[in-house]
Give the backbone structure.
Amino acid sequence: MTSEGESKRAELSPREGESAGDKFQRLVAIMARLRGPGGCPWDREQDFDTIKPYLLEESYEVMNAIDDRDWAELAGELGDLMLQAVFFAQMASEENLFRIEDSLDAINSKLIRRHPHIFGEGSAKTAEDVKKRWSEIKAEEKAHEGPRLLLESIPDKLPALVEAQQISARAAGAGFDWPALDQVLEKLHEELGEIEQARSMGSREELEHELGDLLFVVVNVARFLAVDPEQALRKSNRKFRKRFAHVERELARRGRTLGESSLDEMEALWQEAKRLR
């Protein structure tokens, strides 16, 4: 005889020839089972606020897998990310707020609505045409909600760099922008001068203020150069990690620690790491 648990396991196990839809529905069923009566104690005690950190964590793990070009890892991390969406939807369903089907309907309808050049009579010959039309349709959809401030819809819980990127892009789209990159670079030099002035005054609060202004201008430089500042910084972080690890490993090979080594010795190994790429 098989136990009830074994029966449920067999019922929710993968089957040969299943479609992507079948597999997704099984994920939904597994999540419902975990949250249901007699389900997993940990899953059952979670709520929207306790799950939020995992959503952010899984998003960054997806980005790490992409940066590493580790496609097997990416497949697994995307599964973990989908679990977060299903988890939120299951909790919402339990409170009769909405179901996962509503989320799927919403994104399917949005994609069709905002791609009239594919699913309608619209025309868009370039990626820029598509972005422009997407923004126009989005504005039309939100017009019925009444007047809203331009930056109001940008979440204030975003990482600061991403928030600055969205704020500057939104303001620039409304015409509040420098005429050209040269003017942005002039502003960059101006902010560097103001940091030096704040440093000489010894005001920690003013220094923080000016450093924030400098970072905001750097985000705008990235926008003019069509570079994603978040991804650029992530790549620089990874590059620093790799080179610093080389310094540590080489010192360890010589029987030395970082604290026992001179700056000149560490710098020489750093330059060696740069040559090794």
Q: What stands out?
A: The mean pLDDT is 90. DSSP finds 13 helices and no strands in the chain. The two ends are 61 Å apart (CA to CA).
